[in-house]
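In response to the reviewer comment on reproducibility (Comment 2.3), we provide here a single inverse folding case reported in full, input and output, so that an independent group could reproduce the run without further information from us. The structure tokens appear first.
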């Protein structure tokens, strides 16, 4: 009798505990926070601070804010200590945990030490591609040079060759819109903290190429700028930056809940996939972007199906800070050269076609005369 009542009591206790843990269960929404670099890879260096240390400090503060304000969110870190993790493994951690959001945290550096401010990147190479974005992606991606077997693992990707980056033009991911929206929340958050807002950008970051959820890479500021370095390494600066990202997270999460509640669009069995996860070398790339956009729209239940806009490809051959006269020797005898102006820079292009194969052929030819030439995409309208 005594024993039975004890059993009964234990049963009540267990079921109560189960109920409590069920109602406050973290994990309805999973966010992966990825502090860039670590261990043998310090990332960018300032005069005294190291990127990896700043990234980790801000990441941990961000995670704490999320955990204490959103009980239903599970926070997963790719690292919580100073250790080296391969780029692909960071994406794998997010995919294995079926994350709903991936935030990679980095600190920036450029040779030009006067530059300061924040940027948030999504994967891609839009028409707004700049040499600066490329320089930043190259620096971040060269972390793979510290990995064993990186040539094999990244299928011949050379982080320091601009040619390797053309493939990102074709790596449309069905979460791109959501990623860009989240990125703009983050940039607004930074602006509210009076950080210089250098905008939402796109570049070819390897760490984002395999993630199967909305993903961004945040550049907190420039360690190469003396006064920004002081801010980045200060506890108050790190708290402020973490808070700015947190407010963006909070907004994103509320929107996510609203959409999930009203439209029942959250369906974990609708296995997300990157539209172009195959990391073919640009030479072997044959499919056209139009096909990709269509399949992306069709496979996405949450984004509205829309007619795919035709894109025009051109080969950008050179830039100049003034308009070149007709027959300029810099054009190397090429006629029918076109140009567009961006931030007072004249950007000269050659050829125009909607076919990727054609532009690839043209690009190979043109590169013999202009070794830095690359393919650029324009919206048709
Ligand atoms: Zn970095």
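Designed residues, in position order:
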């Amino acid at each position: 009798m005594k024993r039975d009542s004890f059993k009964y009591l234990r049963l009540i206790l267990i079921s109560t505990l189960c109920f409590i843990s069920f109602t406050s269960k973290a994990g309805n929404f999973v966010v992966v926070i990825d502090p860039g670099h670590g261990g043998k890879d310090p990332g960018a260096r300032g005069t005294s601070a190291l990127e990896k240390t700043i990234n980790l400090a801000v990441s941990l503060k961000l995670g704490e804010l999320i955990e204490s304000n959103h009980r239903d969110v599970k926070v997963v870190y790719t690292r919580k200590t100073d250790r080296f993790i391969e780029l692909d493994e960071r994406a794998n951690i997010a995919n294995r945990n079926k994350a709903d959001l991936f935030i990679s945290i980095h600190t920036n550096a450029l040779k030009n030490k006067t530059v300061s401010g924040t940027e948030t990147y999504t994967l891609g190479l839009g028409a707004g591609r700049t040499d600066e974005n490329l320089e930043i992606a190259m620096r971040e991606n060269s972390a793979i040079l510290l990995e064993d077997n990186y040539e094999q693992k990244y299928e011949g990707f050379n982080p320091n060759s601009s040619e390797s980056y053309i493939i990102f033009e074709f790596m449309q991911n069905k979460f791109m819109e959501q990623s860009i929206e989240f990125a703009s929340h983050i940039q607004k958050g930074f602006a509210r903290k009076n950080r210089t807002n250098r905008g939402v950008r796109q570049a070819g970051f390897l760490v984002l190429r395999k993630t199967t959820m909305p993903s961004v890479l945040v550049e907190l500021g420039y360690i190469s700028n003396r006064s920004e370095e002081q801010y980045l390494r200060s506890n108050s600066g790190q708290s402020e930056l973490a808070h700015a990202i947190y407010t963006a997270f909070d907004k994103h999460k509320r929107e996510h809940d609203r959409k999930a509640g009203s439209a029942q669009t959250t369906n974990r069995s609708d296995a997300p996939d990157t539209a172009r996860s195959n990391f073919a070398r640009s030479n072997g790339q044959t499919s056209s972007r139009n096909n990709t956009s269509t399949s992306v729209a069709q496979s996405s239940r949450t984004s509205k199906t829309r007619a795919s806009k035709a894109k025009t490809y051109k080969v950008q051959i050179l830039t100049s800070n003034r308009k070149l006269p007709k027959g300029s020797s810099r054009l190397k005898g090429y006629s029918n050269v076109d140009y567009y102006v961006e931030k007072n820079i004249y950007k000269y292009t050659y050829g125009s076609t909607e076919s990727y194969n054609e532009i690839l052929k043209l690009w190979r030819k043109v590169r013999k005369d202009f070794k830095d030439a690359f393919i650029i995409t324009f919206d048709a309208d």
